[in-house]
Amino acid sequence: MFRHALVRIPGPNLADGLSTSDRGKPDYQIALRQHERYVDALRGAGVTVDVLDPLPDYPDAHFVEDVALVTPELAVITRPGAEARRGEEDAIEQVLARYRHIVRIREPATLDGGDVLIVGRQVFIGISQRTNEEGARQLGEILAPCGYASTTVPVGSGLHLKSSVNVVAGDALLIANSKQETMSWGGHLAGFRQIVVDEGDEYAANSLWVNDRILMPIGYPRSLEKLAVLETRIVQLDMSEMRKKDGGVTCLSLRF
Ligand code: CIR
User: Fold this and answer.
1) Which of 58, 78, 172, 248 meets the CB 3.0–4.6 Å disulfide criterion with 206?
2) What pLDDT was estimated at residue 191?
3) Lowest-confidence region among 83-87, 90-94, 176-180
4) Residue ID of nearest Cα to ligand 1 atom 2
5) Separation of 63 CA from ligand 1 center, angstroms?
6) Quick check: is 251 catalytic?
7) Is the CB of 244 under 6 A from ligand 1?
8) Is the pTM here over 0.85, yes or no?
9) Given a cut of 90, is residue 192 above it in pLDDT?
């Protein structure tokens, strides 16, 4: 059960954030409204949400998931793979120190929270453009004494591991078709139900299970239908402006 979430309000310079998308420039007012709906959805799931102010020098800072990860035992402050985002993690450390013992990922490691998928005591760490082997090694070493087993997964194309694979129930993963086939999961997927989203619906694989509900981007009826097997309440959210900067529902918060 998650009790808390941290989010950060997008700043007026969000259009300057990093992006590989050709969906155009985000509209600030619409982005703010979408963010508010997202916070409402988290509150609806019963979590207390700390809403942090924008960081003027960091147009991607509302994607808070990348700069930390929080387990019941501790908080790990990452070292973001994109140089433009380095420094965001210092601002989140001060906040998380109120809730958890802090451990930091150190140079030469790079690690983005978007590459870390924790399912029970199993940690999948995506090796991506943002997360290197040393980042995965340090994280594995930090989490091992708490009883977590880590394994690396090459992300290949796409930004982060969780851009295309997410946990949607205790034993179920939502996974983009292409990733199920091409990622070498080394047999680690065996214990999980896999709900595979169709080609064209890849963005829907970036959905977020929070307590009694799943937050997912609106506009994916086929994936919505597939998720119905879980009999979990689904909240659909318009993520159009976040998507223009490669963001989705998972990266906008830290839950713990
Ligand atoms: C970036 O490129 O870092 C941001 N524009 C998007 C980060 C999205 N984060 C995530 O999916 N975990």
Assistant:
1) 248
2) 81
3) 176-180
4) 18
5) 6
6) yes
7) no
8) yes
9) no
Q: Please say if the pLDDT value at position 138 is more than 70.
A: yes
Q: Contact at 8 Å (CB) between 215 and 206?
A: no
Neighbouring C-beta atoms of residue 64, cutoff 10 Å: 23
Ligand 1: which residue has its CA nearest to atom 1? 18
Q: Which residues of 85-118 are buried (b: 16+ CB within 10 A; e: fewer)?
A: bbebbebbeebbeebbeebbbeeebbbbbbbbbb
- Provide the token pair at 86: 């380095």
Q: Report whether residue 65 contacts ligand 1, using a CB cutoff of 6 Å.
A: yes
39: left (phi over 0), alpha (psi -120 to 50) or beta: alpha
Tell me the C-alpha distance between 198 and 97, whole Å. 40
| pLDDT for residue 181 is more than 90 | no
Query: Which pair of structure tokens corresponds to residue 202?
Result: 């890849």
- Inform me whether the pLDDT recorded for 183 exceeds 90: no
